[in-house]
Structures are given as C-alpha cells and as structure tokens.
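Hi everyone,

Forwarding the result from last night's run.
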Amino acid sequence: MPSPVTLDRREGPYGEVVLRRRDEHFEIIANGTFLMDTSDGRSERLLIDAAFDALPAGRTAPSVLIGGLGVGFSLAHAAADPRWGRIAVVERESAIIDWHRNGPLAPLSAEALADPRTEVLHTDLVAHLRTSTETYDALCLDIDNGPDWTVTEDNGSLYSPAGLAACKDRLTPGGVLAVWSAQPSSTFEDSLRNAGFSAVRTEEIRVARGVPDVVHLGVRPA
C-alpha cells in the first residue's frame, strides 16, 4: 500500500479531522479513526437506494436528510436521482464542507451542491434531530463506523432510545430510517424494534476482506 499524503489537518470543536490522499483516492480521518475513502462507494449508495425502496409505494418527491457529508457519495447519489425532492445534508465539520466547496473533494460533489434541491446544514446531527421541527420522508445516517463504533462519545446518544425516538419524530408516517454501519449489529436491530420501528431489516454489501458493510433499516409506522 502506498503511504498517504496529508492534504489538510484541522482542530475543531469535536477534535482533529484530516484529509489524506492515497494514490488517486481520498481518505477522511477523525480523531485518528478512519472514517471513509473514495475507493468504493457501493454501501453509501445503498444507504440512499434502500431508503427510497422502503418508502410507501406512490410517494412522490420524498424529502431526505443525509447525516454526514463525508466524501460526498451519498449526497451525489441522491442528487443524481430525480425522484428525490428536498435533499438536506447535515455536516458538523466545517473542514469537510470546505473540502467539498473549495477543496480537493469539490469534483465529487460540485454538481450535487449546485442542485437546487440540496441544502447543507452546518450543525451537529444529534442536536438537529432533537431540536428541529422539520420532518423528512427518509433519514440516511452515516456519521460513525456504526452504532457500536462511534467517532466521538457524544454520537453514542444517537443510537440510544432517546436518539432513536428523536429520529422517529423527524420522520413522516411511513418514513424510513437508514443507518450505515461497518458491521452488522443484531443488538441495534433490537433497539430499532424497541423504539417502535417496523419492517426492521439489514442489507449487506460484501467487501474484499472481513465482515460486510451494512445498512440497517426501519420504518416509522403510518
């Protein structure tokens, strides 16, 4: 493996965030934890598609909240699909927003950011879910390596009963919660059911080595 080249490193209110390039691919590291890279966006695209497919039949121009801008795969995929209506993306790291608007990641997301359906919310996802009065047809969340492997301690509350209740409150009846994870979690499936979500299931994306990436899905009952 070639050694990565650090392109930017910033200290923020949530710790250190780093953008690196390894050959032609980019990597985002937060507080020393690898978050994601641009080598394979299949699971990020599945996050969007699985949420749409789980919506009630006939729902037109559904709105989606994407939690985490990351390398932009999920946003770009949603914006490339004309079936989506309003597309909001929440990102708490100003550095990541800068890398997409004016930096090395701009080629990946420029078209999506220019889409009139797209709105970037520079705020903390957990706080937004608990304080906003907005509702969405789908929540597509990818801010950690999964419910059992959070980037910061505060993120853990997202997967708690109170956090899942906040997610349900932000969904329209029949709306879908989709959560990306680097590994399956039967415990989180149980948490979704206990929080009142129905049709709970997990979709997998096989990877070259190790356990598959997954998307956990649950539906707010109509």
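The first strand starts at residue 5 and ends at 12.

Cheers,
N.
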